[in-house]
Amino acid sequence: MAVKVDKEICIGCGACVSLCPDVFRIGSDGKSEAYNPKGCKKCDCQAATDNCPVHAISL
């Protein structure tokens, strides 16, 4: 699995960070980034993808 955030459409709401903090963080530009794009075993990256209001996350 590889996690990717489309920064062109990300609005920086932080939902993905709340759901999967071991994979996502808010970058200096105020938008989400996948700092651990390989994912992790502790959180639910699919839930983060499903809850993105602008569908900026892909797996």
Automatic annotation (TrEMBL):
Keywords for the protein's UniProt record, in alphabetical order: Electron transport, Iron, Iron-sulfur, Metal-binding, Transport
Protein name: Ferredoxin
Pfam families in the cross-refs: Fer4_13
Organism for this UniProt entry: Fermentimicrarchaeum limneticum
Function: Ferredoxins are iron-sulfur proteins that transfer electrons in a wide variety of metabolic reactions.
Molecular function as annotated in GO: electron transfer activity; iron ion binding; iron-sulfur cluster binding; oxidoreductase activity
Limits of the 4Fe-4S ferredoxin-type domain: 1-29
Source domain of life: Archaea
Needed co-factor(s): [4Fe-4S] cluster
